[in-house]
Amino acid sequence: MSLFNVYPLFDITPVSAKDVYVYDENNVEYLDLYGGHAVISIGHTHPKYVKAISNQVQQLGFYSNAIQNPLQNQLAEKLKSLSGCKDYQLFLCNSGAEANENALKLASFHNGKHKVLAFNNGFHGRTSAAVAATDNPKIVAPINAQQEVDFLPLGNLKAVEKILQQNKTCAVIIECIQGVGGLDQSTTEFYQGLEQLCKQYNTTLIADEVQSGFGRTGDFFAFQKHQITPDIISIAKGMGNGFPIGGILIHPSIKASFGLLGTTFGGNHLACAASLSVLEVIESEQLMQNAKEIETYFREKAQTLPGLKTIKGRGLMLGLEFDFPISDLRKKLIFDQHIFTGSAKNPNLLRILPPLTIQKKHIDLFFEALINELNTL
């Protein structure tokens, strides 16, 4: 049986990894500045992470949500402590798309409305409503297109109000820093205005923190810089450091009832053990502070790059925007310099999403390699 060929693959086969490095079958060492789409938050094979999963699987790897699972309560408490989102409730699932799917469904249950408002260049997943709210028609099938979604430019409050006053929109979903779309973000004035409009028109505000959460921006969540209180917060990627887990944080104004949401694998024992270890390492190794410090160093080093238009993003969710397409440059970094980086919807943007454990010496290696390749273009 062959694989269903939907991924354009680089000819590299990783077989092991440690912290910020990945090793292929020929023992070639690659500096990982992409973390598998921002998934690797505390570094590959972190010893505390490996120990937590190993110990848990020896005891109990899985049972359904029909029984008590104290690990879920421990995870909720640790999340409350570290994120500062003290009054929220936690529902656990398996991925970012599933998190956003449940967030949109819950919003519609809550206020009885059916439309969604999303923003240009946003990405929220590949499932039913989540993909319909993603600004990429190429991945929206006809069955997904039955969802009613309005797309607006980021930052336009007047256009938002014009849509919301029609009283059909159940949710506004937004990435406070766009990921796949190209690391665009708006102003605090816009995000605070958006929150006020959602309250005024009984619309659920969903902060998609799937990529930007769990300390990646230097704050636990990207929205916290803007001092807003979303109704629902979706989480995944860095939450499990590679183990599949996602979830939504739900404001207490939204009430639970039996059967409202459900999942077979979500919040299983192994997933909870993985995420608990991630939170413990983020806290004990002060990785949010490290994200801020490395961002400052990164920006300083980037100032002298030839052809650079701007530096985008925040914390360790960064992008270098050049005045030319970066596709060839990215390939040279992988195959000639042995450094993983990422691309975006913006063809000129090189995305940098390393493990939060990255150090200044790794940034030095990257810029040395990048300058060498830029000088050959």
Automatic annotation (TrEMBL):
What is this protein identified as?
Acetylornithine aminotransferase
UniProt keyword annotations, A-Z: Aminotransferase, Pyridoxal phosphate, Transferase
Family assignment from sequence similarity: Belongs to the class-III pyridoxal-phosphate-dependent aminotransferase family.
Record-level Gene Ontology MF annotations: identical protein binding; pyridoxal phosphate binding; transaminase activity
Q: Classify the source by domain of life.
A: Bacteria
- Say yes or no: keyword Magnesium present: no
Q: Which cofactor does it need?
A: pyridoxal 5'-phosphate
Its lineage reads: Bacteria, Pseudomonadati, Bacteroidota, Flavobacteriia, Flavobacteriales
| Pfam families referenced in this protein's UniProt entry, alphabetically | Aminotran_3 (PF00202)
InterPro entries, A to Z: Aminotrans_3, Aminotrans_3_PPA_site, Class-III_PLP-dep_AT, PyrdxlP-dep_Trfase, PyrdxlP-dep_Trfase_major, PyrdxlP-dep_Trfase_small
